[in-house]
Amino acid sequence: MRSYFDKLKNQSSPIAFIYPLITALLAGGVLSLALAPFYWWWLAILSPALLYACLRQRSAKQAFVIGWAYGFGLWFVGAFWLYTSIHVYGNIAAVWATLLIALMALVMGLFSAVQTFIYRRFFPETPLTFAPLWVLFEWCKTWLFTGFPWLFVGYAFTEYGLDAYAPAFGVFAVSFVAVLLGCALVEILRRRLIWIIPSLLVLLGAWGLSLVQWVSPKNTAPLNVSLVQGNIPQDIKWLVERQQETLDIYNRLTRTEWGRDLIVWPESSIPMLQSDIQPFLLAMDQQGKATGSSWLTGITYFDIPASQQSGEYKLYNSIMASGAQADGLYKKQRLVPFGEYIPLHGLLAWVLPNISNMGFTDLSPGPSNQAAFQVKQYALAAAICYEVAYPNLTRRNAINSDFLVTISNDAWFTGTHGPWQHLQMVQMRAKENGRWFIRATNTGITAFIDAQGHIVQQAPQDQSLVLRGELPAMQGRTWYNLLGDWPILILSGLLLLLGWIYRPRQYDISFKSRR
């Protein structure tokens, strides 16, 4: 092992540089195997450990290239499920679809490239600077350039030991601990045995936090919920001639569920605007009131703001509530770039003049201060599809809620790892906020997830069915729900500040000599 580390740090020839490049590329690629549906969690410790080892005594420029190789492997393998939506449903040739994913991986890989450049340029080589930088760059992926918060190390531990940090400090804290353990392992293999102590301390911290009961059930009747999974294939979902068939499928599946507390239809289960289907919505509302059932459904919401006199309108990806003792409308806040809107639409219209003639209509983002749904005596905080990938957005919506509900349409990624990774994020959001998560999807994975982030019931994929459950409302708040990401971000910032201030003077001298 030590001889291999020597090869990784050898800078005597360009050929020797191949070792860390290949190692970093493979290390990035295998990280996705730590996530769902494989759950080889130990790879989430090994993967960043290998990158850490590859960066030893490297110049900042070399670190940039090594980090880029790692990032490319991470995103090309970890997000290859995008191939199905691009090739199958986008009707793009296989070679071009693969090249588009490679281009995406090159762009997203720049996060790792910049991270490793900054690490080797400004900070001493220690796990106490590498792990904080890792966390800050994961956090950046939740907002920079609209964000693509996927493939975080912390998700690998949703049900494995280190997950106890999630309700206290969130997924970034889990990532921090996992990366710290991986880097400490490298140091221990280099016979720096002092790193055994912090490793044991963070493991002891996970054990201690696992004993904390953050929330408890309310002394109220459980909520009887039916989740309707219509299993409408993506290639026919929006065809005008199939709209009535889609409604018939959902109506048929729902017929036996009237009388339960809550019935949930998934994202875009009604493939029409609410303004075009008012008689149907009114009939569903009356049926719900007659049987004592509340009904939530995904639908595209057409709105003409009262303040606009020009006749302009807005479209929202939304959830509507109706029926007995149900009220609310939630408009999706975080939209999918190139899926729900075109970024820099004005610039692209100049670069690509025909973009306005492609039949694409931008959706509008909903406001950030939306109230929870009121269903019976409970408050349900909502998230639509991709939004559950954003920890702080879900946390903000979850404040003062009794349950969390999310609807999705992952038919774009049927047969891939994408829906499983998506479900794992929902588990982490439930754990962070200490609330049951109700998840209804079109083709899967429909599930009930408890307040500890465990899947209690799960429907098979690609089948038309109804999943039923009885869910207790929870009370109390986790530290994460109360404080958000600030504790782990502040800790990371302080560690980096200390690392920069107290870096050895010879570090700057050696860096200048290698430029």
UniProtKB/TrEMBL annotation:
Residues 228-473 form the CN hydrolase domain. Pathway: Protein modification; lipoprotein biosynthesis (N-acyl transfer). GO terms for cellular component: plasma membrane. Its main location: membrane. Its EC number is 2.3.1.269. It comes from Acinetobacter larvae. It is an enzyme of class 2 (transferase). Belongs to the CN hydrolase family. Apolipoprotein N-acyltransferase subfamily. Catalyzes the phospholipid dependent N-acylation of the N-terminal cysteine of apolipoprotein, the last step in lipoprotein maturation. Signal peptide: none annotated. It is found in: Cell membrane. The chain crosses the membrane at residues 12-33, 39-55, 62-83, 95-119, 131-152, 164-186, 193-215, 479-502. It is a multi-pass membrane protein. InterPro entries: Apolipo_AcylTrfase, C-N_Hydrolase, C-N_Hydrolase_sf, LNT_N. Keywords: Acyltransferase, Cell membrane, Lipoprotein, Membrane, Transferase, Transmembrane, Transmembrane helix. The keyword Transmembrane helix applies. This is Apolipoprotein N-acyltransferase. GO terms for molecular function: N-acyltransferase activity.
